Amino acid sequence: MAFWKREAMRHFLWDGVRAPPFLPPARGLARARREAGALAIWPSRVPVTITADAAAVGVALARVEDGFLRSRGLGAALHPPGSVVIDRCGIYYNARAASDLERLLATHDFSPDLVERARLLRARVCDAGVTKYGAEAGRMIDLPPGRRTVLAVGQVDDDMSVQLGGAGVDGNLDFLARVRRAEPNAWIIYRPHPDVQAGHRKGHLSDAVVLEHADAIDSGAPLMELVQAVDDVHVLSSLTGFEALMRGCSVTVHGMPFYAGWGLTRDLAKSSPRRGRQLDVDRLVAAALILYPRYIDPVTRLPCGPELMVDRLASGSTPPMTWLIRLRALQGKLRRFMTLSAEFLHG
C-alpha cells in the first residue's frame, strides 16, 4: 500500500484490537501463511504473480481499492480515501472475473428496508451534489439548442479499470473515436479525467486530436450538472456512468464496468454470462454504496455509514491540506506544463 495511504488503511483494516502490519509481498505471504490469515493488497502495487503465489501457498487475498464516495480531492493528488472496498473474491473493476460486488448484484435478496434506505441515500447524494471527488463548482458549458448532445467521459489510459474492464477499448483516443461512430450526428463534449488534467496520470489528448472526433472540450463545468443537461452520457468504465444512473440519466457503456449488464445501461460490449439479472437503480445503489464499501468519518476517524460520508463531503469536513498534497500538486503542474510545451514545439 502507498505510504501516504497507510494511516487511513490502519483504520479501515483495524479488527478491534490492532491494525495489520505493512510488509513487502513475499514477507506478507509468508506471515499470512504462518498465521493462517489473509493478505490485503492494493492490486496495482503488487507483482502480477501475487495471485498465483498466494494460491500456491494457500493464502487468501483481499483486494483493497478506493470506494465510490471517496474524498473531496484526487487520489492521484494524495488525498486519503474516506471509503474503501475490501473484496475477497476479485475486485469490482475486473470484468474478466467475479467479484464480491458482482455476486451481491447477481444474487442478493434486497429487502424492502434496504431498498428504501438506498433510495433515500441516492436522493441525499443527488441533493448534496456529491460525486466521487465531492461537491463541485464551476461555470456550465453552453449547449447548442436543437441538437442531440452527448458527453464522452475520458479516463486514465493505464488505469486497471480500463485494462480489465474496458472490453478491448484501447485508451481515450480509441474510446472517443467509438463514441463518434456510435453518435455520428451528435454534438459531442469530451471531458478529460481530472487526474489526467492535473498532470498526474496518462491519457492526455491534444485539443487538435480531440476535436477530430468531438465538437467541444470541457473540464470546468460542474460534472453532474453537465451529465444531467446532455441527452446521453458515454463512458468506457468510468464511475461517472454510475453517478449518472443515480440521477436518472441515459448511459451508454463501451466497456463492462460493475453497473453494466443489469438492464440499466445501453451496453455496446458483450456482457458477462454472470450478469443479466434485471435490477433497478436503488438495488444497484444498495450494493455499491451500502453493502460493499467501508467508510471512515474524516472528522472522528471512526467507522460510519454512507449517509454521514455524504454529509461530510457536502460540508467540506475532510482532512486539511498537507505539505505532501501541495508537493504533489506542484509536480502535476510541472508535468502538465512539459506535456503542453512538447505539443507546442511539435506543432
Features:
single chain; Capsule_polysaccharide_synth; 39% helix; alpha/beta; Rossmann fold; 347 residues; Capsule polysaccharide export protein KpsC/LpsZ; five-stranded mixed sheet; 12% strand
Could you walk me through the main structural features you see in this protein, from its secondary elements to its overall organization?
Pfam families: Capsule_synth (PF05159). It comes from Sphingobium scionense. This is Capsule polysaccharide export protein KpsC/LpsZ. With 347 residues, this protein is an alpha/beta fold. The chain has a domain at 137-271: Rossmann fold, CATH 3.40.50.2000. The protein has 14 helices and eleven strands. The protein has helices at residues 6-12, 25-34, 50-56, 100-107, 112-128, 160-165, 171-182, 194-197, 207-210, 223-229, 239-246, 281-291, 306-315, 323-345; strands at residues 38-41, 60-66, 83-87, 149-153, 187-191, 216-217, 232-235, 251-253, 266-267, 293-296, 303-304.
Which class of secondary structure composition applies to the elements? alpha/beta
Record field, number of beta strands: 11
What is the rounded Rg? 20 Å
Question: Strand fraction band?
Answer: 5-15%
Write down the CATH topology of one domain.
Answer: Rossmann fold
What is the class of one domain in the CATH system? Answer: Alpha Beta
Question: CATH superfamily of one domain, please?
Answer: Glycogen Phosphorylase B
Helix count equals 14
Q: What does the main sheet amount to?
A: 6 strands, parallel
Order of helices and strands: HHEHEEHHEHHEHHEHEHEEHEEHH
Spans with pLDDT under 50 lasting ≥5 residues?
73-77
Q: If you average the pLDDT, what whole number results? A: 86
- The portion of residues assigned to helices is 25-40%
Strand order of the largest sheet: 6-5-4-7-8-9
InterPro entries: Capsule_polysaccharide_synth
Organism: Sphingobium scionense
Protein name: Capsule polysaccharide export protein KpsC/LpsZ
Pfam family, one: Capsule_synth
